[in-house]
Amino acid sequence: MAKKTYRKTVLENGLVVATESMEGIRSISLGYFTRQGTRDEDPGVAGVSHFLEHMLFKGTRNRDARQIASELEDRGGSLDAATAKEFISVYARFLFEDLELAVDLIGDLVSNPTFPEEELQKEKGVILEEYREFVDSPEEYVFFLLFRALFEGHPLSREVLGKPETIKAITRKDIVERWKEAIAPENSFIAAAGFIDHDELVAMINEKFSFPKNEETRWGEGQFPEPGFYKESRPALNQAHFSLGVRIPPYRDRRRYPFIILNSILGYGMSSRLFFELREKRGLVYSVTSFLEFYRDAGVFGVYFSLEPGNLDKAYKVLLDELEKVRKNGIREDELKRAKGRVRGSLALSQESSSSRMSRVANYELHKLDFLHIDEVLERFDRITLDEVMEVASEFLIQENYGIGLVGPESIMNWSP
Q1: Is the distance from CB of 356 to CB of 350 less than 8 angstroms?
Q2: 96, 107, 80: which is closest to 193 by C-alpha?
């Protein structure tokens, strides 16, 4: 039997510490995560979670911004942060002998930020530039339109960055209130992987982390709308960027496993069905891929491609035909075997990285699921049958359930599905 390397401790304040130990390496990847993301914000201060992430690095009661940036970097490590629809995180990768320094640094960022007013005003300009860059990147912006098409009126439709008007209006008081709510220990966890001693880490976290009092936590829920179609023109563009998606079950649903296989067959790499039909066989698109996103109450299966606008009608018809073929006829045994091989190889290779292992630990804890060791995950994929893939395809790949986002030159404004 494989050695069990995963451990989990729940501290008295409710904070979870989850680790996976790795032998034969010298690195550790460690992150603080809160289950509060942009979907849980007050819409009146949309983007405040992302703004909070930025402001955590602007100084604490013990460190200024330069010290925060340099302490791990000067020892060959790295420190970063991220905001998503369902979490905010601060994470680091470093040599195992720098564990105490890393825990002290991340604990200081989370527990003792000062949110200086002068830095807040400067950071507004930085975030507004980030927003403009996002709007000017059609290959990113099209997914914002897709999520509007699938979730308009629901918190999952919100853009992580917020809106220019809300970014400009955010105050220091808004940041402090979001900090108190988001980092409440009962909503948070520490995930780590690498050459690490679990008990030693728990002792350090008990010492280095403290949390402000939180009165109440807001959770962004809502009803799902009928899927729609959203498009925007960009006169400077020559290509159109198209994304189609459908709502599927959330991460906790075990049907995510056959969906991962289906996604691999349809849009993973140059051997996928969609790449062959849309690019190799017909030359209609430049790039094409399929993707999966999972959240606490829903998931998304989607397809993205970029192309010359004049090919949009043909490419859309081929895409619908391919999805319908899978829905009606399922997949072949050889496709299932190759997809399992791709998944197995990808998972096995990820095991060599402490960052990937930390992300796996975090993902299970984010969704409050029991941790599965890699052998258990591989076994689940090995057991997937043709019928299971057929079942999810036939239930969810229905044209009436598709939402669509489209960005391109002015000519695309005349197109409709």
Answers
A1: yes
A2: 96
DSSP 3: P
Would you call 53 a catalytic residue per the annotation? yes
> Interior CA angle at 385 toward 379 and 390, to 5°?
135
Q: Are 393 and 301 in contact (CB under 8 A)?
A: no
Q: Which residues contact 136 (CB under 8 A, 6 or more apart)?
A: none
Q: Is the pTM of this model over 0.90?
A: yes
Burial 343-377 (b: 16+ CB within 10 A, else e): beeeeeeeeebbbbbbbbbbbbbbeeeebeebeee
Please identify which of the residues 53, 123, 322, 365 carries the catalytic annotation.
53
184 close to 345: Cβ distance less than 8 angstroms: no
| Model pLDDT, residue 3 | 57
How many angstroms separate the CA atoms of 142 and 148, rounded?
A: 10
Do residues 107 and 209 touch, judged by C-beta distance below 8 A? yes
- How far apart are alpha carbons 307 and 319 in whole angstroms? 13
| Cα–Cα dist 360/215, whole Å | 31
At a CB cut-off of 8 Å and minimum separation 6, what does 310 contact?
none
Q: Say whether 125 sits in a helix, a strand or coil.
A: helix
Q: pLDDT digits over 208-240, tens only?
A: 999 887 767 889 899 999 999 999 999 999 999
